[in-house]
What we know:
The complex is a heterotrimer. By secondary structure, chain A is mainly α. Chain A has a single domain (17-127), classed as Up-down Bundle (3 helical TM bundles of succinate and fumarate reductases), CATH 1.20.1300.10. Chain A contains four helices and two strands, in the order αααββα. In chain A, strand 1 (95-96) and strand 2 (99-100) form a beta hairpin. The model of chain A has no long low-confidence stretch (mean pLDDT 92). Chain B contains 15 helices and 22 strands. Chain B has helices at residues 24-36, 72-82, 89-108, 141-153, 221-228, 256-259, 295-307, 329-335, 337-347, 402-424, 432-447, 458-472, 479-495, 510-534, 553-556; strands at residues 10-20, 42-46, 62-63, 123-124, 134-135, 159-163, 165-173, 176-184, 189-200, 233-234, 239-245, 263-265, 312-314, 317-323, 356-365, 368-370, 382-384, 389-390, 476-477, 543-544, 558-563, 571-576. The model of chain B has no long low-confidence stretch (mean pLDDT 96). In chain B, a hairpin with a 7-residue loop joins strand 21 and strand 22. Chain C contains nine helices and seven strands, in the order E-E-H-E-E-E-E-E-H-H-H-H-H-H-H-H. By secondary structure, chain C is of the alpha+beta class. In chain C, strand 6 and strand 7 form a beta hairpin. Chain C is elongated and about 65 Å long. The model of chain C is unreliable at 248-252 (pLDDT under 50). Classes of the chains: A mainly alpha, B alpha/beta, C alpha+beta.
Amino acid sequence: MKAHYQRPMGRWYLRPFYLFVYTLRELTAVFVLLYALVLLAGLAALAAGPEAWAGYRQALTHPLSIGLHVLILVAALYNSITWFMVAPKAMPAVFIGTRPLPGLLITLAHIVVFAIISVVTVVLAGAG
Amino acid sequence: MTRFDHRPSLESTRHDVVIVGGGGAGLSAAIAIAEQHPDLSIALVSKVVPMRSHTVAAEGGAAGVVSASDGLDLHFRDTVAGGEWLCDQAAVDHFVARCADEMVRLEHWGCPWSRGADGSPAVRNFGGMSTARTWFAADKTGFHILHTLFQTSLRFPGIQRFDEYFVHDLLVDDGRCRGVVAIDIASGGFHALQAGAVIMATGGAGRVYRQNTNAGILTGDGLGLALRHGVALRDMEFVQFHPTTLPGSGLLITEGCRGEGAYLTNRHGYRYLQDYGLGPEVSEPAPKTMELGPRDRLSQAFWHEQQAGRTVDTPNGPAVHLELMHLGRRKIAERLPFISELAKTFVGVDPARAPIPVCPSVHYTMGGIATDITTATAMPGLYACGECASVGIHGANRLGSNSLAELLVFGREAGLNAASFVLDHAGQGEGTALAAQARDSAARASAWLARPAGGLRLAELREQMTTAMQDGVGIYRDAERMVAACETLENLSQSLDRISLDDRGRCFNTEWLSAIELGFTLDVARCIAHAALNRKESRGAHQRLDEYTQRDDDQFLRHSLAKLAPGQPPQIHYQAVNITRLAPGERRYGAEQTP
Amino acid sequence: MNRGNRQIDILISRYDPERDDQPRTERYTVPYAHDSSVLDALLYIKDHLDGSLSFRWSCRMAICGSCGKMINGVPSLSCKTFLRDYAPGPLYIEALHHFPVIKDLVVDQAGFFDKLPESRPWLIRDQERALADGPHRQSPRQRARFASTSACINCLLCYAACPQYGMKPDFAGPALLALVERYNADSRDQGKAERMPMINAEDGVWSCTLVGNCSAVCPKDVDPAAAINRNKLESAKDYFLRFLKIGSGGAE
């Protein structure tokens, strides 16, 4: 009797589509990290003095920087929303009587809170 | 390359008890032995992984007397009258006294019984039962029982599993059962399991019919094995048609629906059961009334409605309507979630909005390998329990929820009695004659793979068999059609060795197994048809349209016993019924019921 | 059974260890009706076209868990997947991914079954209750806590959907970890501590990267991804508590 056939994994991270969605979610974390580095650089510039801070702010207006920020924004949104989608699975179960709280509700609640905080932040930033 | 090895491997092992079948009965037996006799070695042999066994598909529940207003005597009377007095009354007494304990035992093992508000297990109404005594886990009771038993069995190192081993023969020495020979399905090699005792727990034979609720595995293997070794099958003519199944596929729509209050209506929206001695029409479920009548009466009522042209046409044949809409979405979700899923998936009906089309299909083999009250068969060392056995509690018509209870009560009983037998007969093992027997048996099974091509197709023979049974030995029977069925079956039986297989390999050759199964199924079918033809009366699930439309206690208040000799039609004999305390009377339901 | 008058082509990945080194694909044409399932098609092929095709099946009603296959790349129960949804075809059927193939559509399930006993999937009590004491009390609310995880039919679709299991066959995997959670969440059970080592292990919950696909393919809404990731919380808590205990022990 010959051995069983073991199918190779192949490019599982690209196909089927739902695994590509997952791969993207994991990849977008890199952009979130990138933005953390941008912020860190800002902090370092602030600590270094007014000139460095001005230089940092100047650099932010460069078209390349703006392009990068748009990219980061899109990636971060994808990352956040896909994580909100799995949030019901990562938190303790919530029951109302004998019925579990629908996962969709939990995801929506996350998105709503996220949207409110974003708007408030933008308004506050604008006011400042 | 050689595709076929003429000298197949034959392994051999020794065990104290070999259990054939890993469903509810087999697992109950295994656990009972492992608990009581941790030093005994148990082999649990099953052609499927245990949790695939058909216990998994039981839906409605398991009977066990618990409430203060109920009593063992009531359960006894319901069962004996429901079986139209063809029950062994000592066995029924033994059974009803042990049901509730088994339900509690399962609870202790983690079975998720549905609960009342006070946290105690809930019970529901079931057909033919005079009060609510059916324990349930929503509408997946069998599923939960089987998984609880399987998972609990993992605790016991004494239970050695042989998953996906197909038993094709018994080892018999000096009239005593000494083990089994099995095919290791994955490799196609043979394995002789010698044992001090063997327990058959292989389930029923619903696949004998074309339209049935049964899984593909229910080919009557255990019954066929017993027959071939001279052990009689009892009361095989009593085949249960379940009144509410999906047309075409025969998928089961639980009696639990009616226990919860569902209605059966004909094409005019009329609750027709009131015309068949089951009225008065009640809006809330009432014991033994209307939709809570016994299964034989309900299936027969369908037949009459069909004859009268009052059924509904579906692409898969005539049906009536099972209405759950008035129960409300919430109750359906809580008590009948699986039915809801089945109806949506398989017939595209949301039962909260529309009726489910249903019709009767073959559901349960009420007869089986004849055993005494201890589950011992006539062959020393061979025990049988569960649907493959006839311990005598179902008679001519089984009440719903008695079979899950049966496989727990008598599964345990079989385990303990087989273990005692082994301990009493210790040190009488004999290996050499058995080894030769196993080799011969393996060679016979292997011969299937060496047959010339161009013969008959397996599926065609199977289809002819199921059609003959469906047409000849259905809900209503007459001599002419039963004779025709018997003739067809005898011819098919002769044709069996003209089948040739497409698959000559050994590795996971399911065509080979199907061929061996068909041999068993055909033998069982022959016994059913002949036993039915010989019973010249109407009783329970055996109803005749010819001159024998009445029950005849003088001639036929007797069990039938079918035996098979090579090359001959089945021989039918009769055996007295053990009536201890409830004299034969009339079965009454609806307004006229007597407790 | 109503066989219908439409036709569809089915491609099946075949593998016979007695003659093939690699799987090969064969094409079959089958008739179908509105209610024909993929399982009906496989049975038609076996009965009428090619008896050598091997596959597991049994109950036909999505409760025994036997008939999982990859159908157009998605792990599915063949009894509750319908041909009408794939018209005009062809559709492609393979053995469940990530498991070794024994023959045709039959896989070796040892990767699940052999791991079962170590997860201790049975009710554990400090003191076994006597029959005479009757059943435990359990409210409908308490029962609801493990209603979804106790619905697992062990069909193993979730393993075929999990790339982590594909890369790490030692990973306990979705169904097994859901089963652990089923008993841990049962108000009658007292065995959580015994199951913790298995949850904490390298091949326990921490091998899960929350792809979430196990829950997406589950035919019984068991939601194994939730069961696993809730146990990450438990595992972290367990680690932290043990850390504190060792810490305080050292201080004495």
